Structures are given as structure tokens and as C-alpha cells.
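Reviewers of the previous submission asked for a worked example of the structure-prediction workflow described in the proposal, so we include one complete record here. The input consisted solely of the amino acid sequence. No template or homolog information was supplied to the procedure at any stage.
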Amino acid sequence: MPQEQYTHHRGTMPSSEGPQVYKVGIYGWRKRCLYFFVLLLMILILVNLAMTIWILKVMNFTIDGMGNLRITEKGLKLEGDSEFLQPLYAKEIQSRPGNALYFKSARNVTVNILNEQTKVLTQLITGPKAVEAYGKKFEVKTVSGKLLFSADNNEVVVGAERLRVLGAEGTVFPKSIETPNVRADPFKELRLESPTRSLVMEAPKGVEINAEAGNMEATCRTELRLESKDGEIKLDAAKIKLPRLPHGSYTPTGTRQKVFEICVCANGRLFLSQAGTGSTCQINTSVCL
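From that input alone, the workflow returned the following C-alpha cells.
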């Protein structure tokens, strides 16, 4: 440190003593401490500068952005995997052309649609156990805009041309079902079954049951009823067989022919009676009891 000396004269009176000299500056341990702090400050500045350069290098800071984050005219562009620890607010999220967009989460992914009062209008929750959707109406459409499926509080609509149920147990309808056509897949059987209740098929203009390449069976435990209030019931086939009709017990002596006639009781029951030269129904009326 520079040293300064000056002479201080007290008044104009001559003195027998010589002039007094005062030293101005920092000396001794104070000077060494000052040098030490200046050196420490320079070291800290160099370390801070080196750390800043290292962070810029590691984070890949450029003029266009940072790391996988790029700033473009259309917004922000992320390349590679990105992790958000806090809520993300964006107007639009889209993937790179030709690539898929993935959302990964350890628990679930929730998408909320809010109104101006920040009230949830529609919510979609995809979790490890289920996918839940909350809203007034749910619709599935094709690319052309054709409705495939919709559901709301009033009804569920299936707009596809064909509804296929692949379950081994079929489809269970606890109440009624309304459809213009019920058919099975080619070379498959179609079964309409009610294990504990009755099965009723109604139509204002008729019910048609058609099996073009196989048999048709109608089986019940107690009673099978075919009823036509204003029209008629027509059995149109090359052969009509009633194999389990009861037989009358009367047999004329010496007659062994295998020709029978169908008789109808007053209560509507049918039975077979061995044919004769005339009607034998009145002889076997005991079957009608």
C-alpha cells in the first residue's frame, strides 16, 4: 500500500522538537486479511462462472430454448420424455407428425373440462382398475361423423349396423328389448332363452321366425302358446308331425291298420284315434277328461 507522510505544524510558534510524521494506510494483519478476502472473492467468482457455464452446457441452453424444450413460432416444442410435477395448463397438446402421443402415470390420468366458474363439466379418469367418464352425454363417432354409440340419462343408442356379443353366456336383458332384427353369425346358433321367467315376443304387424339353413326349436316347461287375435296361424311345411299326441284306447276287433285321425277335445287338446270307416273320435272321448 502506498504510504503517505505529511508534516503537521502546530501554530507558527517555533518548537524545539522536530516535525511529527503520521502514517496513513493498512498495515499488518489487516492488510493480509484484505488480500485474503479479495483472493477468496476472486475464487468464488471463478467457481460461480464455471458452474454457470457447466449448467448451461448440461441443460443445453441455446438461443432457441433449453434441452428438449424449443421455442417456436407456434409455441413450445418438447422432444423426448417430459415430466410435469405440477398441473399443466395448455390450450392444445399434440405430438410430432407421424408419432403417437403417450400419457404415463404411476396412478391415474385425469382430464377435466371446466367452465368459466372453474366448475367441472366433463371428467375422464383412467386408473389402474377402471376408466371412468363423467358428463351429460357420451358419444363415439366415426371419422366421417356417423354415430356409433351414445349414452345419456334417458337411453343408450348403438348406431352401428351390427351389434355383436362375443361372450359365452350371451347377453342378459333384465327388462324388455326393442329391435327390428335379431340374428346369429353365419353357421352359429341363435338362442332366445328365459331361464326363470316367460319369453314374450310381440309386434304390431307380426313376428317372423326364420331358419333358412337349419332347425328351429321352441321349448318350454309348462305351456307354449301361439295366439293370433285377428288373423290366423298357418303351419306351412311338406311334413307336419305331432309325435307325442296321446292315443285313443279303442281298437276295433280284427283291425290292424296304422292310419289315425286327429281329434280335438272341447278344451282344445289334440289326440290320435285309430281311423275307421267313420270318425272314431267320439269313441275315445275319455282322453279329453
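Residues 1-11 have pLDDT under 50 and may be disordered. We consider this example representative of the routine output the project will generate in years two and three.
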